[in-house]
Amino acid sequence: MSLKSNKKAIGESHSKLILVGEHAVVYGKPAIAMPFPLKVRATVKESKGPIKFKSSLYRGYIYEMPNEMRGIEECIKETLNYLNKPIRDLHITIDSLIPIGRGLGSSAAISITIVRSLFSFYRQKLSKDILFSLVTVAETYAHGNPSGLDMIASSSEYPIWFKKGKESMTIKIREPFHIVVADTGRTGNTRRAVTNVKKRYDLEKSNIQKSLAKIERIADESKYALVNGDNNLLGKLMNLNQQELINLGVSDDNLNKLINVAINAGALGAKLTGGGLGGCIIALGRDLEHSKVVADELVKSGVEKSWYFSTENERLYVSLND
Ligand code: MEV
């Protein structure tokens, strides 16, 4: 391996949204996710001494990171071990626009940027397989039993069809669609939500298995809707998916209320996205203008922030509380 390094290197990634199939994906069912253009960047520079880390959550040496960031520390160490480089003499800075713990894939996106930036710093080529195996180190610390969906979606530029342990596939969408994302401002806890579903699965196996089977059909039909440009059908399927997420026990009163606000504002469909029990909801607008109406209604109902965008272009619009 080359002994040379760059003086400074950057790695980038972005947020993700799960359109349908979260939680069921942990049980081997398919899910559909897509990129969400909130960016994150890691910058690596040379700096003598133990590795220093700077982010909105923590600033200091990696060996003193708080417990909830242990996965990031391990991911940095594993990456440097893989590169055969010393675990020292670096300064890593994270600049992220992704709110943390809102089901938007911030932990996977941050780990992706770190691995990418370290490979770039040491001028090494990074294959997808190596990227995913190094990011899995951090994701396992963060979520316990991750399906891998977050990291694949956060490193993809297109909507994807994902099944645990299988090669993901890009979905070619026929018609653009328009998504509203609303942040409740409440931190979800994916690890807790996944554990709750597992407990429920063990207690009420046949009920939960029925839900998982329904979600599988919803994912299949959603793929059909995307490939055929049937946004009305996609909206209906999002609503059906939400009913099953309620049955799995990962929605709550506040999420349900916001989903109703979106539906009453004319959204074609709405559901929670990601782990649930806090975090974000997504809604399907009729067009970009209508998505703004839905986003504004959600902000009036008290969400912290609402974004809307069209899959036609990368531009992200924000609706904020005054
Ligand atoms: C979290 O963004 C998605 C979940 O399905 C967990 C996972 O896939 O690992 C809830």
TrEMBL record:
One of its GO terms (molecular function) is mevalonate kinase activity. The gene is mvk. PANTHER family: MEVALONATE KINASE (PTHR43290). Residues 75-154 form the GHMP kinase N-terminal domain. Its main location: cytoplasm. The keyword rRNA processing does not apply. This is mevalonate kinase. Keywords: ATP-binding, Cytoplasm, Kinase, Lipid biosynthesis, Lipid metabolism, Magnesium, Nucleotide-binding, Transferase. GO terms for biological process: isopentenyl diphosphate biosynthetic process, mevalonate pathway. It comes from Anaeromonas frigoriresistens. PROSITE patterns: GHMP_KINASES_ATP (PS00627). It is found in: Cytoplasm. InterPro entries: GHMP_kinase_C_dom (IPR013750), GHMP_kinase_C_sf (IPR036554), GHMP_kinase_N_dom (IPR006204), GHMP_knse_ATP-bd_CS (IPR006203), Mev_gal_kin (IPR006205), Ribosomal_Su5_D2-typ_SF (IPR020568), Ribsml_uS5_D2-typ_fold_subgr (IPR014721). Signal peptide: none annotated. It is an enzyme of class 2 (transferase).
